[in-house]
Each structure stands twice: as structure tokens, then as C-alpha cells.
Design brief:
By secondary structure, this protein is of the alpha+beta class. About 40% of the residues lie in helices and about 10% in strands. Helix 1 runs parallel beside helix 4 (about 45-60) and helix 6 (about 110-125) runs parallel beside helix 8 (about 145-160).
Length: about 475
């Protein structure tokens, strides 16, 4: 190479530095190639070579996430821009909450009040005036519809965990269906555990009338399953269990306390867990907590444990999920036996635990918690998927799961968006989709497992010993 003028050398250096620092956009899979292109030509000038080495060390020290760096991202959500986030918050506060709660409560305004309840849950809002309106809602609870009662109970479980024990107790004794009763029971068990015997007595009466009710049986298990009574089977057996031929399997490994994020991993169609180019097992954090933190058998509760049929990718129209594709899931009762079992020869059309049990390794067949998705489906839950997020994480600042955002019971990964232009910066959901594509695609199962009740996020070191068959 011919000698360059000072100006030419500066341009030469600038060009190569520009190419090098594009690693943050190109991705780590091109690291070696970029290193060659940048440093080999530069090595012909010792001074420039030394500067490039320093630059390389700087990037390694201060950009340790090169392995997971993503390409230039074209995904866009206008709702994530700072001005629109501020506008949305004002709209939720002024219109969805304050305006709706200002209306007299009657049959025609119930939906307005229910919208307000949802807004209060979403942004974790409380105020003395709003609190007084919730007491007003309980004053006429006997006249209210079942959907209104459920929405009100969902709100107080989420935002008022101790304030309405008297009102909820009274409603429990008059509950006209299983879900209303179970929501009352769950509220009281959390707010005042010494009421357990009172709740259990009412539950037994209800079970006598409907012993096959999924909601009541799930509640009964939660009341009677004291810590340690139901022992977790060998997790390794489930992680390496064969399903149908060429099935891809996603494992979402969680804590019992869903305030702490879990971890999602992908097993490919031949049974190996997906790794990155450096031989590390792929994983990203995943939240299985709903905004309400209700148990998984109840609508809008946490993601239930158990097996979900995974089939296909879609893009949501929801402004809170955003444009990143989501992974489509279904539970028992939500889809046919033929589809769930991937067996077109099945003629039976009635769901039973016998069918579900066929999917489990022997050591897991009698482990009741792994049937969570079965009973949630039986109880009427639907539309649980695995998605990204455009919800403002600032609503949940200070929570153990921050900066992840809870949903209505789906599995949610972290995404970061540029507040200036709404472009996607970081997407764990996109990383998950890439790993899933590498594994063989979205045809198989997603399995949610709770490891234990340790009060911390699940980390890769918690499961490494379980991954090698």
C-alpha cells in the first residue's frame, strides 16, 4: 500500500474505525471477519495498529454484549417514543381512570368503570379520590354484573392487597359462580392467611356441588399443598423427554414467586439445546408474571405451569405487545386433541388428563402442578402467547422484575425502544425467535416449569447441570 498523506491516513483510520464499531449493529457472528478487515491492513502502520488494538480492547471491555448484538433494526413502534408515552400516560390517567370513575355507577357505566380498573392496574395507580371510588363500587356490589365483579376483584387483588378484607369476605359468601368465589378466596388467603380454614370450609361446600370444577380443584390444591408436600420430580427427565418426531421444544424455567424473572431456552428438533457461535447455551430472561399476579388457573393470572402446544408465528395488533412477532401457543380445551397431540389418527374429541399424561415422562405423570395448563384451559383460559413488549417499563420501576414488563398472563421478554424515534434497540424476543428458527421452527411444545421458590431470578447456572443428557 502506498504512503498516505496525513489527511488520507485520518480518513483511512476513520473508515476502518467506522467499520469496526458497526459490530454493535452487525452482530458477534461477524467478529472475526471484522477483526481481520480492520486490523490486518492497519498492521502495516505500527502506530495505527497500536491505536486499533486499543480500540478493540475498549470495545471488549465496555461492550461485553457483542455476542448478542443484533442487526440494524427496522422494527418500529410509535407508542414507544417519549412524547407518545407521556401522552398515553395522561390519557390513561385523565380519561380511562379519572373521567370514567367520575361517572355515576350503574348498569350503563359498568364498562367505563371496568376500563378504569384496568388502567389503574396497568400503571399501578392509586390516589385518595380513586380509593374512595373503589369503596363506592363495593357499596353496590350486589347489583353489579359478574364481569364487573371479576374486574373489581382483579383490581383489588392487584392494587389493594389488604384494604378490602371485609368487603371481599362478604362477597365470598354470596359468590354466584366458581370464579368469583375463587378470586375472593385467593384475595383473602393472601391478605389474611389465618382465614384459610374459613375459606376451606366454604370451598368444601362448593366442591360437594361441583366436584369436577377445574377452578375449585385448583384452589383446593393450593390450599392443601403445604410447602414441600409436593416434591419436584427430576427436571432433567422433562428437559430431555422425547415428544413427537422433529418437535421443537421451548422451556420457560420459572420461580414459584413470579415477581422474579425466569429463563427461556430452546431445544432443537433432534433434542439438543440451542447454543450460540461460541458454544454457550442460548437463553434470555422471560417473565411469566401477569400484572395481577393472580394464580395461573384464573383469567388474567400468571402463566400456568405445564405444556402448551406451539404452532406458528404471528404479529399482534396490540399496541402493548408491539410489532415483534410472537410465538403462538394453545392449551388443552383451547384446541383439538389431534392438534395438541400432533396425531391426526385420534378420533376422541373429549379432553381428559389421560391424554395429557401421555406427553409426560413417567416421573412427572403424578406431579399435579405440571397439569396447570390443562386445568387453566378447562377453566376457560385462552390466548396465552410468548411475546415482546412496548409497555413503558417505568410503570414498574422498583419491582423485582423491572425492566421486564408484566402482561395479562402471557410469557413476556424484554425489548428496549429508542424514545426519540421509536426504533427497536434491543429485543430478547427477536433473539428467541432466531434461536427457535435455528432449532427447527415453531412446531412443537412450550413447557413452563417452576424450579423452586428462591427469591431471585433464574440464571443459566441454575440449569446448566441439567442440560447435558
Amino acid at each position: 500500500m502506498q504512503n498516505k498523506s496525513s489527511t488520507g491516513m485520518q480518513q483511512y483510520t476513520s473508515d476502518y474505525f467506522f467499520n469496526f464499531f458497526k459490530l454493535k449493529q452487525i452482530g458477534a457472528s461477524h467478529l472475526l471477519l471484522a477483526f481481520y478487515k480492520v486490523f490486518w491492513p492497519a498492521s502495516k502502520n505500527n502506530q495505527l495498529y497500536f491505536k486499533c488494538i486499543l480500540a478493540f480492547l475498549f470495545v471488549l471491555l465496555f461492550n461485553v454484549d457483542l455476542i448478542n448484538a443484533q442487526p440494524v433494526d427496522s422494527a418500529y413502534s410509535k407508542d414507544t417514543r417519549a412524547d407518545n408515552k407521556a401522552r398515553l400516560y395522561r390519557n390513561i390517567l385523565n380519561n380511562a381512570i379519572n373521567k370514567n370513575l367520575s361517572l355515576p355507577l350503574n348498569d350503563s357505566s359498568e364498562e367505563n368503570w371496568m376500563d378504569a380498573f384496568w388502567g389503574m392496574e396497568l400503571i399501578r395507580y392509586k390516589s385518595p379520590w380513586a380509593d374512595s371510588r373503589i369503596y363506592t363500587a363495593f357499596d353496590s356490589i350486589d347489583k353489579r354484573s359478574i364481569p364487573f365483579k371479576r374486574a373489581l376483584l382483579e383490581l383489588v387483588y392487584t392494587n389493594y392487597p389488604f384494604e378490602f378484607i371485609k368487603e371481599v369476605t362478604q362477597l365470598m359468601y354470596k359468590a354466584e359462580n366458581d370464579k368469583i368465589f375463587a378470586m375472593c378466596a385467593e384475595y383473602l388467603l393472601k391478605a389474611k392467611p389465618e382465614l384459610k380454614s374459613t375459606v376451606a370450609a366454604v370451598l368444601l361446600k362448593n366442591l360437594a356441588l361441583n366436584k369436577d370444577a377445574a377452578v375449585l380443584n385448583e384452589l383446593n390444591f393450593r390450599i392443601n399443598n403445604v410447602a414441600g408436600k409436593t416434591r419436584l420430580p427430576d427436571v432433567k427427565a422433562l428437559l430431555h423427554h422425547p415428544f413427537f418426531e422433529n418437535a421443537t421444544v421451548i422451556y420457560s424455567i420459572q420461580r414459584s414467586n413470579r415477581n422474579y424473572p425466569g429463563l427461556v431456552m430452546v431445544r432443537d428438533s433432534v433434542g439438543n439445546f440451542v447454543k450460540d457461535v461460541y458454544g454457550n447455551f442460548f437463553s434470555v430472561p422471560q417473565l411469566a408474571r401477569s400484572i395481577t399476579n393472580l394464580p395461573g388457573y384464573l383469567t388474567n393470572g400468571n402463566t400456568p405451569q405445564g405444556i402448551f402446544r406451539m404452532f406458528g408465528i404471528n404479529v399482534s395488533k396490540s399496541n402493548f405487545i408491539g410489532p415483534t412477532p410472537n410465538i403462538q401457543l394453545t392449551m388443552p380445551y383451547e384446541t383439538s386433541l389431534q392438534h395438541f397431540m400432533n396425531d391426526s389418527s385420534i378420533t376422541d374429541t373429549s379432553w381428559t388428563t389421560t391424554w395429557y399424561k401421555k406427553l409426560l415422562p413417567e416421573s412427572w405423570k403424578n406431579y399435579y402442578p405440571i397439569y396447570g395448563s390443562f386445568y387453566a384451559g378447562k377453566a376457560g383460559r385462552t390466548e396465552i402467547i410468548s411475546h415482546g413488549t412496548t409497555i413503558n417499563p417505568d410503570y414498574y420501576r422498583g419491582q423485582p422484575y423491572y425492566p421486564l414488563t408484566p402482561s395479562l398472563g402471557c410469557l413476556c421478554t424484554k425489548e428496549t425502544w429508542d424514545e426519540a424515534d421509536g426504533r427497536r434497540i434491543i429485543s430478547d424476543q427477536q433473539k428467541l425467535l432466531s434461536a427457535l428458527s435455528k432449532a427447527g421452527g415453531a412446531n412443537g411444545y412450550l413447557i413452563v416449569i417452576e424450579l423452586n421458590d428462591e427469591q431471585r431470578p433464574v440464571e443459566i447456572n441454575d440449569v446448566l447441570a441439567l442440560l447435558n443428557n
